[in-house]
Amino acid sequence: MSARQDPPSRPTIIHVARAAGVSKSTVSRVLQGDTASVKPETRQAVARAIRKLGYEQNAIASSLRTARTHTVMLIAPDIANPFWSEVTRGLQDTMEHSGYSVVVGNGDWDPHRESQFLKTAQRNRFDGIAINPTIIHCRELRATGIPTVILGIRDGFPQIDMAGSDTYRGTLDALAYLYKMGHRRIGFIYGRYNTDPGYARFQAYADFVKRNHLRADSSLIVEVPFDRAGGERGMQTLLSLSKPPTAVFASNDILAIAAMQRAAQLGVKVPGDVSIVGMDDIYPAAMTTPPLTTMAKQKYEVGCQAAQFLIERIAGKAPREGRRCVLPCRLVERGSCAPSRG
Amino acid sequence: MSARQDPPSRPTIIHVARAAGVSKSTVSRVLQGDTASVKPETRQAVARAIRKLGYEQNAIASSLRTARTHTVMLIAPDIANPFWSEVTRGLQDTMEHSGYSVVVGNGDWDPHRESQFLKTAQRNRFDGIAINPTIIHCRELRATGIPTVILGIRDGFPQIDMAGSDTYRGTLDALAYLYKMGHRRIGFIYGRYNTDPGYARFQAYADFVKRNHLRADSSLIVEVPFDRAGGERGMQTLLSLSKPPTAVFASNDILAIAAMQRAAQLGVKVPGDVSIVGMDDIYPAAMTTPPLTTMAKQKYEVGCQAAQFLIERIAGKAPREGRRCVLPCRLVERGSCAPSRG
DNA sequence: CAATATATTGGGAACGTTCCCAAAATCAAT
DNA sequence: ATTGATTTTGGGAACGTTCCCAATATATTG
Fold first, then answer.
1. Residue A87 and residue A89: Cα distance in Å, rounded?
2. Distance between CA atoms of residues B223 and B230, nearest Å
3. Phi and psi at residue B325, to the nearest 5°
4. What confidence score (pLDDT) does residue B250 get?
5. DSSP secondary structure, A219-249, as one string
6. A249 beta partners
7. Which domains can be identified in chain B, with CATH numbers?
8. For chain A, what is the largest distance between any 2 Cα atoms, rounded to a whole number of angstroms?
């Protein structure tokens, strides 16, 4: 049909060898920076040939032979959430610094997609996996045979490295902060996960109530999906209680911000009528009115640390047992909290 | 040293063949879904063997043979900006839907990194590239020999597909909106790019001024870097003018939001004392106080369209000349603008 | 200078697929 | 049963590297 011109196929190591008057073995050595076992002159000659031909190494062929792809997969539940963007950046910067590329899979809270990505990682022989598992279990992860790190702190993954935040402690501290301001009826907008991470917050809330001898009032806990609509609905529910809370802790900033907006719509003043504390400290938290007081997580650092773990494990320099790096949270006081007027 | 157990090497197509009592060719055919030329029974037998051995195809080997990787690279200047997160999501969703993985490279406004990513794409024989070029030129892009789509509308890339927003028209409309509200002194916070995209806005501003016979006052144009600090500085500069503008158009929402915050810090009321219009409509724009009026871009859709172009071009189903898809902007009126009191 | 050690190099097998082509099996028609 | 067409299968050469091992060139020593 159309006289499709043959795409000028890229030069291979063999073309380079020919041009430099050496064998492909030698070229390969130069390519790998094996400075010890190749004479400087030949080295030069090869380099010249490479430049002249515009040769680019074929990573595919290399990977096939070495069984290393220098690529890892990141599986996060929701890249649209700035929280994960930040974690991703940390991971990516660190991985790239060590010569790895990062493929990011957006799980989108869909269990099917999650295991789909796992398969992709397997087929493509990725060197590592960083994942915040929503539904995937330990055995499936280990069955891949690929070095793995978990983003977040989870039970039930004994042999796997984990990097995350101290959500339990952070939640406790956030609640203590409100308590110290005189709040005794504290609502809890509880983002629902299928698995533990939400649970740490829940646990902390329960422990807090017990420890301070507050009356356990289950109507103060509302469970909602982890999105904007969830936050709005949560606040709505809490405020329409016959005895609404004077303060609210939300599982994350997305929920907290939405809650704050809904409060405003209902004519309830923040922090005058109700105080709000969020968690994560995502980028938009600083620009709401009032700016959101929140328990900040070290997002970028979590990503970096996870990458570090992963790199070591890939290199086989990690201990058999799983390590965990738990970074503390830190309260960022802005304008969404005030002393209770009770 | 340590008795490292041999990792149980994955089964290959040959193991499957052996188990099913057929040749590797036949297994390969089954794998590729070549339903026409393999007898249903053998097909079944192979499928059984695959399941039994837990075989996973080696995409690397496959790629080496077929010269197709089913992977594309996205190079964006700043993934932390929610604008790019959205575009990325659109691209990713569409690409994944067609069986492609997406590697995202965060250019971080660093020209060196940008061409570094290009090299990576080349070495890994990625099937496609989607890029918002900040410094890279057309020839370098074409020299890769990889099908490419540009995110955004640019001059100087004649043969390359582009998907983006009508920034020129959008800017014009935003300014017209302010004009209709009675504003005659309109400031322009001009995000600096090395290349055109900022320029479309600049051009529009200049044309607008001329067309409406406004006095060309260069002190109303401040050029700043494309980040939060830039926005704050820009606003500061404009407000300290002896005759400050009554309205400001900012190149994007990051700048606009920062500008708004700086105004508030300086005790200048928005929109009472100064109106502000942004561009992009990123996620945080809705939660500022007042919420930001902005010229919305169809971020997700741009990503989808770019993916579509790329997929077609990879398949060789695209015309030789570059196509362009220009999506219109749409004004989202929120609370940061008010009629001029002049 | 011979003999040995050491620094460089080259040849070829392997990695796990795909794909061409030929071989074998099946079917249809005489 | 024979021929020919058609379906289904198998064998082996690629793809572009790396890496082992052997071969050669060079340096060192007596």
1. 5
2. 8
3. -115, 115
4. 97
5. GGEEEE-SSHHHHHHHHHHHHTSSS--SEEE
6. A188, A277
7. 13-57 (1.10.260.40), 71-166+299-327 (3.40.50.2300), 167-296 (3.40.50.2300)
8. 88
Residue at minimal CA–C1' distance from C9? A26
Distance measured from the CA of protein residue B12 to the C1' of nucleotide C7, in angstroms? 40
CA–CA distance, A74 with A161 (Å, rounded to integer): 14
- B101-106 sheet: strands from edge to edge: A324-327, A161-165, A148-151, A128-131, A71-76, A101-106, B101-106, B71-76, B128-131, B148-151, B161-165, B324-327
Amino acid, single-letter form, for residue B248: V
Strand C bases within 7 angstroms of protein beta carbons:
7-12, 14-20
| Assigned token pair, B170 | 């959008």
Contact yes or no for A86/A303 (Cβ under 8 A): yes
Nucleotide nearest to A58 (CA to C1'): D16
pLDDT over threshold 90, residue B35: no
The answer to whether A242 and A271 have CB atoms below 8 angstroms apart is no
**What's the pLDDT at A109?**
78
What's the Cα-to-Cα distance from B86 to each of A67, A261, B224, rounded to whole Å?
34, 23, 24
Per-residue model confidence (pLDDT) at position B80: 79
Q: How far is CA A157 from the centre of its chain?
A: 17
- Within 8 A of A106 by CB-CB distance, chain B residues are 89, 92-93
The pLDDT tens digits of the residues spanning A71-80 come to 999 999 888 7
CA distance B91 to chain A (A): 12
Q: Is the CB of B14 under 7 A from strand C?
A: yes
**C-beta atoms of A102 and B101 within 8 A:** no
Q: pLDDT tens across B177-223, in order?
A: 999 999 999 999 998 765 555 588 999 999 999 999 999 899 999 99
- Assign B3 to helix, strand or coil: coil
Cα(B35)–Cα(B99) distance, integer angstroms: 20
Q: What is the C-alpha to C-alpha distance for residues A286 and A334, in angstroms, rounded to an integer?
A: 8
Q: Judging by DSSP bridges, how do beta strands B330-332 and B293-296 pair with one another?
A: antiparallel
Contact A54, A17 (CB under 8 A): no
Please say whether the beta carbons of B259 and B232 come within 8 A. yes
Q: Return the sign of the alpha-carbon dihedral for residues B61, B67, B71, B77.
A: positive
- Chain B residues with CB under 8 Å of A120 CB are 101
Question: Per this entry, what is the length of chain B?
Answer: 342
Q: CA A43 – C1' C14 distance (Å)?
A: 26
pLDDT at A193: 66
Rounded to the nearest angstrom, the gap between the alpha carbon of residue A189 and the centroid of all alpha carbons in its chain is 22
Nearest to A196 by CA among A173, A162, A245: A162
Residue B98 DSSP code? T
Which pair of structure tokens corresponds to residue A251? Answer: 């599982």
Q: Is A271 exposed, middle or buried (0-12, 13-18, 19+ CB in 10 A)?
A: buried
Strand order in the sheet with B221-224: B221-224, B186-191, B247-250, B275-280, B293-296, B330-332
pLDDT (tens digit per residue) in B54-111: 999 999 999 999 999 999 999 998 887 899 999 999 999 999 999 999 988 888 778 8
Sign of CA dihedral A183, A186, A191, A196: positive
* Segment (H or E) for A187: strand A186-191
Question: Which pair of structure tokens corresponds to residue A4?
Answer: 């499709």
d(CA B27, CA B3): 35
